[in-house]
Write a structure and sequence with these properties.
single chain, 11 strands, 7-stranded antiparallel β-sheet, two-stranded antiparallel ribbon, alpha+beta
Length: 395
Protein backbone atom coordinates (compact mmCIF):
# COMPACT_ATOMS: atom_id res chain seq x y z
CA UNK A 1 0.00 0.00 0.00
CA UNK A 2 1.50 3.31 -1.07
CA UNK A 3 2.16 6.35 1.08
CA UNK A 4 -0.74 8.18 -0.58
CA UNK A 5 -3.15 5.41 0.38
CA UNK A 6 -1.93 5.43 4.01
CA UNK A 7 -2.26 9.21 4.05
CA UNK A 8 -5.84 8.98 2.74
CA UNK A 9 -6.72 6.36 5.35
CA UNK A 10 -5.19 8.45 8.14
CA UNK A 11 -7.05 11.52 6.91
CA UNK A 12 -10.32 9.57 6.85
CA UNK A 13 -9.83 8.25 10.39
CA UNK A 14 -8.81 11.69 11.62
CA UNK A 15 -12.00 13.17 10.20
CA UNK A 16 -14.09 10.37 11.69
CA UNK A 17 -12.92 10.89 15.28
CA UNK A 18 -14.67 14.29 15.78
CA UNK A 19 -17.86 12.83 14.31
CA UNK A 20 -17.77 9.94 16.78
CA UNK A 21 -17.10 12.32 19.68
CA UNK A 22 -20.03 14.47 18.59
CA UNK A 23 -22.30 11.42 18.34
CA UNK A 24 -21.19 10.30 21.82
CA UNK A 25 -21.94 13.77 23.24
CA UNK A 26 -25.40 13.79 21.66
CA UNK A 27 -26.16 10.27 22.93
CA UNK A 28 -25.00 11.19 26.44
CA UNK A 29 -27.18 14.32 26.42
CA UNK A 30 -30.19 12.29 25.32
CA UNK A 31 -29.63 9.74 28.11
CA UNK A 32 -29.26 12.47 30.73
CA UNK A 33 -32.47 14.20 29.58
CA UNK A 34 -34.32 10.88 29.49
CA UNK A 35 -33.16 10.00 33.01
CA UNK A 36 -34.16 13.46 34.27
CA UNK A 37 -37.59 13.08 32.68
CA UNK A 38 -38.13 9.64 34.23
CA UNK A 39 -37.05 10.75 37.71
CA UNK A 40 -39.02 14.01 37.48
CA UNK A 41 -42.16 12.20 36.44
CA UNK A 42 -41.84 9.71 39.27
CA UNK A 43 -41.26 12.46 41.84
CA UNK A 44 -44.21 14.50 40.57
CA UNK A 45 -46.50 11.48 40.83
CA UNK A 46 -45.44 10.85 44.42
CA UNK A 47 -45.97 14.52 45.28
CA UNK A 48 -49.42 14.40 43.72
CA UNK A 49 -50.34 11.32 45.75
CA UNK A 50 -49.07 12.98 48.92
CA UNK A 51 -50.48 16.51 48.59
CA UNK A 52 -53.31 16.42 46.04
CA UNK A 53 -55.95 15.14 48.51
CA UNK A 54 -55.16 18.05 50.86
CA UNK A 55 -55.45 20.52 47.99
CA UNK A 56 -58.78 18.99 46.95
CA UNK A 57 -60.16 19.31 50.50
CA UNK A 58 -59.02 22.95 50.66
CA UNK A 59 -60.69 23.64 47.29
CA UNK A 60 -63.95 22.13 48.47
CA UNK A 61 -63.90 24.26 51.63
CA UNK A 62 -63.21 27.38 49.53
CA UNK A 63 -66.20 26.51 47.30
CA UNK A 64 -68.44 26.17 50.35
CA UNK A 65 -68.79 22.39 49.98
CA UNK A 66 -68.38 19.61 52.47
CA UNK A 67 -64.81 18.32 52.76
CA UNK A 68 -65.92 14.77 51.88
CA UNK A 69 -68.04 15.83 48.90
CA UNK A 70 -67.55 13.61 45.88
CA UNK A 71 -68.00 14.06 42.13
CA UNK A 72 -71.60 14.91 41.30
CA UNK A 73 -73.99 14.53 38.39
CA UNK A 74 -75.87 17.55 37.03
CA UNK A 75 -79.61 16.74 36.94
CA UNK A 76 -80.12 19.20 34.05
CA UNK A 77 -77.53 18.04 31.48
CA UNK A 78 -76.25 14.79 33.07
CA UNK A 79 -72.65 16.01 33.05
CA UNK A 80 -70.20 14.63 35.59
CA UNK A 81 -68.48 17.37 37.61
CA UNK A 82 -65.47 17.38 39.87
CA UNK A 83 -65.94 17.39 43.60
CA UNK A 84 -64.25 20.80 43.94
CA UNK A 85 -66.66 22.83 41.78
CA UNK A 86 -70.07 24.22 42.65
CA UNK A 87 -71.12 25.01 39.04
CA UNK A 88 -71.75 22.53 36.24
CA UNK A 89 -69.20 22.82 33.45
CA UNK A 90 -71.77 21.70 30.87
CA UNK A 91 -74.64 24.11 31.49
CA UNK A 92 -73.29 26.53 34.15
CA UNK A 93 -76.08 25.48 36.52
CA UNK A 94 -75.36 25.79 40.23
CA UNK A 95 -74.90 22.57 42.14
CA UNK A 96 -78.25 21.68 43.73
CA UNK A 97 -78.34 20.82 47.37
CA UNK A 98 -79.55 17.33 46.50
CA UNK A 99 -77.27 16.74 43.49
CA UNK A 100 -76.59 13.01 43.14
CA UNK A 101 -73.00 12.17 43.91
CA UNK A 102 -71.02 9.55 42.03
CA UNK A 103 -71.55 6.82 44.58
CA UNK A 104 -75.32 7.46 44.54
CA UNK A 105 -75.81 8.04 40.81
CA UNK A 106 -73.80 4.96 39.88
CA UNK A 107 -76.96 2.92 40.37
CA UNK A 108 -78.61 4.83 37.50
CA UNK A 109 -77.02 3.94 34.13
CA UNK A 110 -78.78 6.83 32.40
CA UNK A 111 -76.68 9.34 34.36
CA UNK A 112 -73.10 8.17 33.94
CA UNK A 113 -73.24 5.48 31.30
CA UNK A 114 -73.83 5.92 27.59
CA UNK A 115 -74.94 3.12 25.23
CA UNK A 116 -72.07 1.10 23.82
CA UNK A 117 -71.18 2.04 20.20
CA UNK A 118 -72.15 -0.44 17.54
CA UNK A 119 -69.39 -2.83 16.55
CA UNK A 120 -67.52 -1.84 13.39
CA UNK A 121 -66.48 -5.43 12.72
CA UNK A 122 -67.55 -6.82 9.35
CA UNK A 123 -66.86 -10.57 8.95
CA UNK A 124 -67.04 -10.24 5.14
CA UNK A 125 -63.66 -8.51 5.23
CA UNK A 126 -61.98 -11.77 6.17
CA UNK A 127 -61.29 -14.94 4.25
CA UNK A 128 -59.25 -18.00 5.10
CA UNK A 129 -58.12 -19.47 8.41
CA UNK A 130 -57.64 -17.38 11.50
CA UNK A 131 -60.41 -14.89 10.78
CA UNK A 132 -61.80 -13.32 13.98
CA UNK A 133 -65.30 -14.52 14.83
CA UNK A 134 -68.25 -12.21 14.44
CA UNK A 135 -68.96 -10.64 17.83
CA UNK A 136 -72.14 -8.60 18.19
CA UNK A 137 -71.95 -5.49 20.33
CA UNK A 138 -73.63 -6.10 23.67
CA UNK A 139 -75.59 -3.22 25.21
CA UNK A 140 -74.60 -2.04 28.63
CA UNK A 141 -76.91 -3.61 31.16
CA UNK A 142 -77.20 -3.30 34.89
CA UNK A 143 -77.00 -6.38 37.07
CA UNK A 144 -79.56 -6.36 39.84
CA UNK A 145 -77.83 -5.95 43.21
CA UNK A 146 -78.37 -8.66 45.77
CA UNK A 147 -79.27 -6.12 48.42
CA UNK A 148 -79.64 -2.39 48.82
CA UNK A 149 -76.07 -2.21 50.16
CA UNK A 150 -74.50 -4.20 47.33
CA UNK A 151 -72.37 -2.34 44.83
CA UNK A 152 -73.91 -2.36 41.33
CA UNK A 153 -72.04 -4.17 38.56
CA UNK A 154 -72.28 -3.73 34.80
CA UNK A 155 -71.59 -6.14 31.98
CA UNK A 156 -68.74 -5.01 29.72
CA UNK A 157 -69.56 -5.03 25.99
CA UNK A 158 -67.46 -7.14 23.63
CA UNK A 159 -66.20 -5.42 20.50
CA UNK A 160 -64.13 -6.13 17.42
CA UNK A 161 -62.78 -4.09 14.54
CA UNK A 162 -60.36 -4.42 11.65
CA UNK A 163 -58.55 -2.39 9.01
CA UNK A 164 -60.83 -2.85 5.97
CA UNK A 165 -59.42 -5.32 3.46
CA UNK A 166 -56.03 -5.99 5.06
CA UNK A 167 -54.75 -9.56 5.41
CA UNK A 168 -51.11 -10.64 5.90
CA UNK A 169 -51.52 -13.37 3.26
CA UNK A 170 -52.55 -10.72 0.71
CA UNK A 171 -50.71 -7.57 1.75
CA UNK A 172 -47.66 -8.84 3.64
CA UNK A 173 -44.38 -9.89 2.04
CA UNK A 174 -44.11 -13.48 0.84
CA UNK A 175 -40.55 -13.78 2.15
CA UNK A 176 -39.57 -14.06 5.81
CA UNK A 177 -37.48 -11.66 7.86
CA UNK A 178 -34.33 -13.67 7.22
CA UNK A 179 -31.61 -11.73 5.43
CA UNK A 180 -28.11 -12.84 4.46
CA UNK A 181 -25.20 -11.14 6.26
CA UNK A 182 -24.26 -7.81 4.75
CA UNK A 183 -24.16 -4.10 5.57
CA UNK A 184 -27.42 -2.22 5.50
CA UNK A 185 -25.61 1.06 4.79
CA UNK A 186 -22.00 2.00 4.14
CA UNK A 187 -20.12 5.26 4.56
CA UNK A 188 -17.47 5.13 1.88
CA UNK A 189 -14.89 2.53 2.94
CA UNK A 190 -16.29 2.44 6.49
CA UNK A 191 -18.45 -0.62 7.33
CA UNK A 192 -20.62 0.06 10.44
CA UNK A 193 -20.66 -3.66 11.26
CA UNK A 194 -17.26 -3.25 12.95
CA UNK A 195 -19.18 -1.33 15.63
CA UNK A 196 -21.73 -4.15 15.99
CA UNK A 197 -24.54 -2.36 14.10
CA UNK A 198 -25.92 -2.30 10.58
CA UNK A 199 -25.89 -6.04 9.74
CA UNK A 200 -28.91 -7.11 7.69
CA UNK A 201 -28.77 -10.62 9.18
CA UNK A 202 -30.10 -9.24 12.50
CA UNK A 203 -33.40 -8.51 10.75
CA UNK A 204 -35.27 -5.65 9.10
CA UNK A 205 -38.66 -6.21 10.71
CA UNK A 206 -39.30 -2.49 11.20
CA UNK A 207 -38.63 -1.71 7.56
CA UNK A 208 -40.77 -4.64 6.38
CA UNK A 209 -43.90 -3.81 8.39
CA UNK A 210 -43.62 -0.08 7.64
CA UNK A 211 -43.26 -0.81 3.93
CA UNK A 212 -46.20 -3.23 4.08
CA UNK A 213 -48.37 -0.42 5.45
CA UNK A 214 -47.00 1.97 2.82
CA UNK A 215 -47.91 -0.42 0.00
CA UNK A 216 -51.36 -1.20 1.40
CA UNK A 217 -52.33 2.45 1.82
CA UNK A 218 -50.94 3.30 -1.63
CA UNK A 219 -52.90 0.44 -3.25
CA UNK A 220 -49.72 -1.26 -4.51
CA UNK A 221 -49.65 -5.07 -4.25
CA UNK A 222 -46.55 -6.50 -2.57
CA UNK A 223 -44.09 -8.43 -4.75
CA UNK A 224 -44.68 -12.15 -5.17
CA UNK A 225 -41.00 -12.95 -4.53
CA UNK A 226 -40.37 -15.66 -1.94
CA UNK A 227 -36.78 -14.45 -1.40
CA UNK A 228 -35.80 -11.04 0.04
CA UNK A 229 -34.39 -8.38 -2.32
CA UNK A 230 -30.67 -8.54 -2.99
CA UNK A 231 -28.42 -6.38 -0.84
CA UNK A 232 -27.95 -3.03 -2.53
CA UNK A 233 -30.98 -3.33 -4.82
CA UNK A 234 -33.52 -0.45 -4.96
CA UNK A 235 -36.11 -2.42 -2.98
CA UNK A 236 -33.53 -3.44 -0.37
CA UNK A 237 -32.49 0.20 0.04
CA UNK A 238 -36.16 1.20 0.31
CA UNK A 239 -36.78 -1.28 3.14
CA UNK A 240 -33.58 -0.17 4.90
CA UNK A 241 -34.64 3.48 4.59
CA UNK A 242 -38.00 2.69 6.17
CA UNK A 243 -36.20 0.65 8.86
CA UNK A 244 -34.15 3.73 9.76
CA UNK A 245 -37.23 5.99 9.64
CA UNK A 246 -39.08 3.59 11.96
CA UNK A 247 -36.46 4.39 14.62
CA UNK A 248 -38.06 7.87 14.85
CA UNK A 249 -34.81 9.77 15.47
CA UNK A 250 -33.73 7.14 18.04
CA UNK A 251 -36.90 7.55 20.10
CA UNK A 252 -37.95 3.99 19.23
CA UNK A 253 -34.73 2.25 20.43
CA UNK A 254 -34.77 4.44 23.55
CA UNK A 255 -38.33 3.31 24.22
CA UNK A 256 -37.32 -0.32 23.69
CA UNK A 257 -34.37 0.07 26.06
CA UNK A 258 -36.47 1.80 28.71
CA UNK A 259 -39.00 -1.04 28.68
CA UNK A 260 -36.46 -3.87 28.61
CA UNK A 261 -33.94 -2.43 31.11
CA UNK A 262 -35.72 -0.04 33.48
CA UNK A 263 -39.03 -1.81 34.12
CA UNK A 264 -38.20 -5.10 35.86
CA UNK A 265 -41.04 -7.55 36.33
CA UNK A 266 -41.68 -7.81 39.23
CA UNK A 267 -40.26 -4.36 40.08
CA UNK A 268 -37.35 -4.08 42.50
CA UNK A 269 -37.56 -1.80 45.53
CA UNK A 270 -35.98 1.13 43.66
CA UNK A 271 -38.20 0.84 40.58
CA UNK A 272 -41.22 0.25 42.77
CA UNK A 273 -40.46 3.55 44.50
CA UNK A 274 -40.21 5.25 41.09
CA UNK A 275 -43.56 3.73 40.04
CA UNK A 276 -42.02 1.95 37.04
CA UNK A 277 -44.72 -0.50 36.02
CA UNK A 278 -43.87 -3.73 34.19
CA UNK A 279 -44.03 -3.56 30.36
CA UNK A 280 -47.11 -5.80 30.26
CA UNK A 281 -49.00 -3.40 32.53
CA UNK A 282 -48.04 -0.35 30.46
CA UNK A 283 -49.03 -2.24 27.30
CA UNK A 284 -52.65 -2.72 28.40
CA UNK A 285 -53.19 0.35 30.55
CA UNK A 286 -51.42 2.97 28.40
CA UNK A 287 -50.77 1.62 24.89
CA UNK A 288 -53.83 -0.49 24.13
CA UNK A 289 -56.28 2.48 23.92
CA UNK A 290 -54.00 4.14 21.33
CA UNK A 291 -53.75 0.93 19.29
CA UNK A 292 -57.51 0.39 19.37
CA UNK A 293 -58.20 3.98 18.31
CA UNK A 294 -55.87 3.71 15.30
CA UNK A 295 -57.45 0.44 14.12
CA UNK A 296 -60.93 1.95 14.61
CA UNK A 297 -59.79 4.82 12.36
CA UNK A 298 -58.92 2.33 9.60
CA UNK A 299 -55.12 2.39 9.93
CA UNK A 300 -52.76 -0.46 10.84
CA UNK A 301 -50.53 0.65 13.76
CA UNK A 302 -46.91 -0.48 14.02
CA UNK A 303 -46.19 -2.21 17.33
CA UNK A 304 -42.89 -2.69 19.11
CA UNK A 305 -42.75 -6.01 20.97
CA UNK A 306 -40.60 -6.41 24.09
CA UNK A 307 -39.13 -9.91 24.08
CA UNK A 308 -36.28 -9.67 26.55
CA UNK A 309 -35.46 -8.13 29.93
CA UNK A 310 -31.88 -6.96 29.70
CA UNK A 311 -29.73 -3.93 30.49
CA UNK A 312 -27.41 -4.60 27.55
CA UNK A 313 -27.93 -2.38 24.48
CA UNK A 314 -26.78 -5.29 22.32
CA UNK A 315 -29.98 -7.14 23.22
CA UNK A 316 -32.12 -4.49 21.52
CA UNK A 317 -32.01 -6.65 18.37
CA UNK A 318 -33.87 -9.42 20.23
CA UNK A 319 -37.02 -7.27 20.28
CA UNK A 320 -39.41 -7.17 17.34
CA UNK A 321 -41.76 -4.98 15.28
CA UNK A 322 -45.10 -6.06 13.79
CA UNK A 323 -48.19 -4.54 12.14
CA UNK A 324 -51.58 -4.78 13.90
CA UNK A 325 -54.71 -4.89 11.73
CA UNK A 326 -57.61 -6.27 13.81
CA UNK A 327 -58.68 -6.89 17.39
CA UNK A 328 -61.27 -8.68 19.51
CA UNK A 329 -61.92 -7.22 22.96
CA UNK A 330 -63.86 -9.00 25.67
CA UNK A 331 -64.39 -8.57 29.38
CA UNK A 332 -61.48 -10.82 30.29
CA UNK A 333 -59.02 -10.39 27.45
CA UNK A 334 -57.85 -8.88 24.17
CA UNK A 335 -56.67 -10.50 20.94
CA UNK A 336 -54.73 -8.38 18.46
CA UNK A 337 -54.24 -9.81 14.97
CA UNK A 338 -50.83 -8.93 13.53
CA UNK A 339 -48.73 -9.24 10.40
CA UNK A 340 -45.49 -10.73 11.71
CA UNK A 341 -42.69 -10.70 9.08
CA UNK A 342 -41.19 -13.74 10.82
CA UNK A 343 -44.31 -15.71 9.79
CA UNK A 344 -45.07 -14.71 6.18
CA UNK A 345 -48.51 -15.54 4.81
CA UNK A 346 -50.00 -16.37 8.24
CA UNK A 347 -53.38 -14.74 8.96
CA UNK A 348 -53.81 -16.31 12.41
CA UNK A 349 -50.87 -14.78 14.31
CA UNK A 350 -52.08 -12.76 17.27
CA UNK A 351 -51.05 -11.11 20.50
CA UNK A 352 -53.10 -12.40 23.43
CA UNK A 353 -53.73 -10.46 26.62
CA UNK A 354 -55.54 -12.01 29.57
CA UNK A 355 -57.00 -9.29 31.81
CA UNK A 356 -58.67 -10.08 35.12
CA UNK A 357 -61.82 -7.89 35.26
CA UNK A 358 -61.56 -7.58 39.06
CA UNK A 359 -60.58 -3.91 39.38
CA UNK A 360 -59.65 -4.25 43.07
CA UNK A 361 -56.55 -6.30 42.23
CA UNK A 362 -53.26 -4.60 41.40
CA UNK A 363 -52.46 -4.25 37.70
CA UNK A 364 -49.42 -6.61 37.80
CA UNK A 365 -51.69 -9.34 39.17
CA UNK A 366 -54.34 -8.82 36.47
CA UNK A 367 -52.43 -8.84 33.17
CA UNK A 368 -50.68 -11.67 31.30
CA UNK A 369 -49.38 -11.49 27.71
CA UNK A 370 -48.54 -14.13 25.10
CA UNK A 371 -48.07 -14.53 21.36
CA UNK A 372 -49.91 -17.33 19.58
CA UNK A 373 -46.72 -18.51 17.84
CA UNK A 374 -44.91 -19.09 21.14
CA UNK A 375 -42.33 -16.30 21.15
CA UNK A 376 -41.87 -14.52 24.50
CA UNK A 377 -43.92 -11.35 24.92
CA UNK A 378 -43.14 -9.10 27.88
CA UNK A 379 -44.92 -5.99 26.58
CA UNK A 380 -45.71 -3.90 23.52
CA UNK A 381 -46.18 -0.28 22.51
CA UNK A 382 -47.49 1.71 19.55
CA UNK A 383 -44.83 3.32 17.36
CA UNK A 384 -45.05 6.53 15.39
CA UNK A 385 -45.62 6.22 11.64
CA UNK A 386 -44.11 8.61 9.10
CA UNK A 387 -45.41 8.86 5.55
CA UNK A 388 -43.04 7.47 2.89
CA UNK A 389 -41.10 9.84 0.68
CA UNK A 390 -41.12 7.82 -2.54
CA UNK A 391 -42.64 4.53 -3.69
CA UNK A 392 -40.77 4.37 -6.99
CA UNK A 393 -38.93 1.14 -6.05
CA UNK A 394 -42.23 -0.77 -5.78
CA UNK A 395 -44.03 0.44 -8.90
Amino acid sequence: MGDATWADAASFVGGLVPVLWFALAVATSVWVLAAAWVVGRAVSRRLERRYLPDVARWSRRRAGLAEDAGPWACPACRSVNASTVATCYGCDAARPAQAPELREAATDPSVFHRPAPASQFDPSRYRGPGAPPSIPAAPLSQAAPASSDARPTYSVPMSAAAVPGFLPSLHGFRFANRWPPGPTVTFGPFDPRILGIGDASTGLCGGMVTTARDLFEAGIPPPADSEPPANGSPRFRSIVRRQVESLDWLRTPLRFFDLQAFRPDPPTRLFGFLRREAPRVAAIRDEWPKIRAEIDAGHAPILGLIRTASSSPRDLTRNHQVLAYAYDEAVDGIRIRIYDPNHPGADDVELQATVDPEAKRAWPDRVQLAQSTGEPLLGFFRQAYARPGSMAAWR
